[in-house]
Amino acid sequence: MSSSKDSCATARVSPHTLDPFQCLLADLRDTLGPTSGIDSDEVDEGKLQELMRKYTSCEADWEQFALADSASNYTRNLVDQGNGKSNILILVWNPSKGSPIHDHANAHCIMKVLKGSLKETRYKWPDHSNPGPPEVMHEQTFGQEEVTYMSDKLGLHTITNPDPNEIAVSLHLYTPPNAANFGFRIYSRQTGKATLIKQGLNYSEYGNRVKTAASL
Predict the structure, then answer these.
(1) Which of 51, 43, 72, 32 is nearest to 167 (CA)?
(2) pLDDT tens digits, residue range 126-138?
(3) Closest Cα to residue 90, out of 202, 170, 148, 161?
């Protein structure tokens, strides 16, 4: 019996046509156009989410970009920079591992689960006049094919792979790519204190390990 990965790979009409994942990247670039990000009047973030939803995950399409590191919580793998105003990454999450509490550097993130499931926990912004653990607002688990949106206007969050045995894989669109260019902040679970991470480094770019590769 063929695997689902084999089935979706053989469903392509021609080896010379773009696979659906590459078509998704092209559609996202076209939708963003020459604008400065989701806040621009020319861009509808709902349209970007809809494009993500329409794509049906096929591991054969994106597995070359999904580089993992068993010694780290997760890896950031760049797959597209579009028009220079966005970053599109595949993140590979090790079992039972997750991100620190973090912001989005005044940018916007659309996430689609490509494999497995991921739990999002959202927090209120810390009150620095009254240090303490950030207050949880909401938790939700997203399964394969599901899409969600996050920005600093909605608070802070963490993403965690709840499965104790299997990796999870997700696709992220960031616009503008502020975290990659200028850094972002992580927040203490005990005090809410912010720490600037000067640059969001990638573990790989376009399927190739980078010499300064970083994973968290």
Answers:
(1) 72
(2) 998 889 999 999 9
(3) 170
Token code pair at residue 121: 């926990």
Cβ atoms < 10 Å from Cβ of 18: 13
Q: What is the mean pLDDT of residues 76-95?
A: 93
Specify the pTM.
0.91
Residues facing residue 102 across a β-bridge: 157, 186
Q: In angstroms, rounded to a whole number, what is the distance separating the alpha carbons of residues 172 and 91?
A: 8
71, two tokens: 């010694």
At 82 the three-state DSSP class reads: coil
pLDDT tens sequence across 19-76 = 999 999 999 999 988 777 777 776 788 999 999 999 999 999 999 999 999 999 999 9
Task: Count other C-beta atoms under 10 Å from residue 161's C-beta.
Answer: 25
Distances (CA, A) of 195 to 169, 174, 184: 26, 20, 8
DSSP for 9-61, written as a single string: HHT-S-TTSPPHHHHHHHHHHHHHTTSSSTTSTT--HHHHHHHHHHSPP-HHH
Q: How far apart are CA 206 and CA 77, in angstroms?
A: 7
Q: Which two tokens stand for residue 148?
A: 């969600």
Q: How many CB atoms lie within 10 A of CB 158?
A: 20
- Helix, strand counts (H, E) of the chain: 5, 13
- pLDDT reported for residue 164: 98
Burial group, residue 84, by CB count within 10 angstroms (0-12, 13-18, 19+): exposed
Query: What's the full length of the chain, in residues?
Result: 216
Based on its alpha-carbon atoms, the radius of gyration of the chain, rounded to whole angstroms, reads 17
